[in-house]
Amino acid sequence: MNLSVGLTTSASIEKMKSVADRADSLGLYGVWLGEDIGRPQEIFTATSLILLRTRKAKVGIGVASPLIRNVTTIARAATALSEISPDRFRLGLGIGGIQDLASMGIRIEKPVDLMRKTITTLRAIWENQGQSIDDEELRLSSYRPRFNGSGDIPIFIGARGPKLLALAAVIADGVILSGPRRYVQESIKMIKEKRVSSKLNKSNFSFVLWVPTAVLRDSSDLGLVKQTVAVVAVDTPDTVLRQADVSRDEVELVRSAISRYGLKEAAKSVSDNLVGQFCMSGDAESICETFRGYSSLGVDEVVFGPPYGIDSQHAISEVAKAWRRA
Amino acid sequence: MMFGISLNVNDPVSETLAKGMSAERLGLDYVWAADLPSQRYAPVVAAVVASATHEIRVGLGLISPFLHTPQQIASSLTTLAESYGSRFDVCIGPGDRDELLRVGVDLDAVRGISQHVLNARREIHKLLKERGLECRIWLGAQGPAILRIAPAFDGVLLNYSSPTMLRWALEVIRAAKDGIPNLLGVFAPSYVYGDFDPNIHRMLQFASATVALGTSDYVLRRFSLLESLQPARKELLCRTFDSSILRLVPPDIIEKFGIFKSHDELSAYVDELKRLGIEHVVFSHPQGHSIETIKELATALRQIGA
Known about the structure:
The complex is a heterodimer. Chain A has 14 helices and eleven strands. By secondary structure, chain A is α/β, with parallel strands linked by helices. Chain A has an eight-stranded parallel beta barrel, surrounded by eight helices. In chain A, strands 5-6 form a two-stranded antiparallel sheet. Chain B contains 14 helices and nine strands. Chain B has an eight-stranded parallel beta barrel with strand order 1-2-3-4-5-6-7-9, surrounded by six helices. Chain B is of the alpha/beta class. Classes of the chains: A alpha/beta, B alpha/beta. The interface between A and B is large, with 39 and 37 residues.
């Protein structure tokens, strides 16, 4: 199993540079950059920054949403990114945060159909040899890309619902999971079964697990963890909560507190149970031990995601070192 | 005068990078990366060039606010400026009508294109200001409706080369009575040469004819060009642009949209632009076809003391 680090477009450029500059020397397998919709940094441009500042680490987008951009923009950006360093770029697609999309007035209709169509079209664009591409749903008409794309950009789907997971099993090169352990276990099992029933090779598929993680110095650091948990928990679909046996009422309490008092205050209503379900915390050694525990479930790559800890650089460094020691 | 080159975003990123570095080394003031739906994503290309250069200004555009939201454009600029310093410009405008239609953006169905572009400019400016970033916002313009909003921008890049057409465009901007932008420029297909290469000239003909064929009826009629372009336009409805269609475009029309000058001829043309008050020239495809063509331009610019 491999250890990678995760960032989002909410991070400052200084933090992105700092993580990218140390990724290779810390021996990290990869850097994933997630799109927090509506934040100042742009996902594709920021990914290019990380690619340009690393030499060995895989660099992935985990994830960008096709709901907020033209499919050709994703194709064009991914082509340019893969050319910066062939074989290191990975493209993750996902519907996007429920709350973020709602705030933009975007309704999620038929997400599975959209994702299937998007991935099929992306590959058609990348493999294109001068033919025109038409797709009524995506509103492409006689579209002719004027770049020789790379047909082998690995596509990952960031998914939580069962239908999208099933789609990922048959159409993607991997899946990016996040959520409580029990949910992760069930999801991996379901995807593996789906691949077997679809007569697909089991080994040609990667399971990536994004875990909000915090290295704690003492209990006073828990406030930071709880803020992250509050955001993640309220963005988790009910299907996942049910599967993981997480109380919906508990999450509703947090949701209501966020809308009434804001995130900082709402974090106080996050229970220890929710923290345990949605975030990994402790010292670097125990975090790595828990990460390794996912290997038995079939996880190939675990992503150490924000909030990291009070001193994020130190926390990333500590976890990377602890990972190498074991 | 400031001179720039528009990089060909059809090229693989490594080639564009090499050309961007050459442009800086050869003393050009700008490189521009245009964002067309059929080409590589310009903000990523701009980032690659910026990562390996130090002083040359990097222009993003033309980029269409009908394909990308103002928030997305502002975010690209934010990431670029925070990563590589305050040397980025952006040029927005409606964009290539035909290319946009192929990806589902029908400009003919949009009411108030100029207002939309103006609103995009305001939104981008507001977001950048909130983030404490300095970035010049240019307008890419051709027709009268778009020209009239030019005073709201830091600069305007006019998409033709003929001094007569440029003079008319400046009159339209002045007639709007909102003043004129601080920066006036030309952005046109170009081939400035020392050793003439017929292949590059052919590319120039294609590039200039493409601009001409995409120009609004109003502008073409204003310069009595519409009728003679109709045969080529009709053929374009049935098939893609090829040599047989190019033959239907009168050479004198092509000349109005492209800059085709020998080293010796460039000086007089630049002087004419200066007299019009135009201080910026962006030499677009095929001038950026190769490092050699960029060198030819740089040599010509050195000869005129630029």
